[in-house]
Specification:
single chain; 104 residues; mainly beta; OB fold (Dihydrolipoamide Acetyltransferase, E2P); 0% helix; 44% strand; globular
């Protein structure tokens, strides 16, 4: 099968555009690509310390990230996300690469 090359004209693409990635870089699971254009919702899990009880608890947080045209993601994919400048009111992170596809 032939793979079609997608021409990326997105100025906020970390690979083909001119946006810089700085700060936090982490992996997260794509929850939704929904109706938003060039956006996705990702969920990251982390361990949080509860000082009062001297225990650790698992916590989740959802955030909206920028999805460049050249990166194809679907719900369930594990992606690497990096922090950038503010792109819109709710987006200050961008998808860098797909680490693991949903069906694998």
């Amino acid at each position: 099968m032939e793979e079609t090359q997608i021409v990326c004209t997105d100025p906020n693409c970390p690979i083909h555009g001119n946006i810089k990635v700085r700060g936090n870089i982490f992996t997260a699971k794509v929850v939704s690509t929904g109706k938003m254009h060039r956006s996705a919702v990702v969920e990251r899990t982390f361990i949080k310390k509860i000082k009062k009880y001297e225990r650790l608890a698992r916590a989740k947080s959802k955030m909206t990230v920028h999805k460049p045209d050249c990166i194809d993601v679907k719900p369930g994919d594990i992606v690497k996300v990096g922090e950038t400048r503010k792109i819109s009111k709710t987006k200050s992170f961008v998808i860098l690469e797909v680490v693991k596809r949903a069906g694998e």
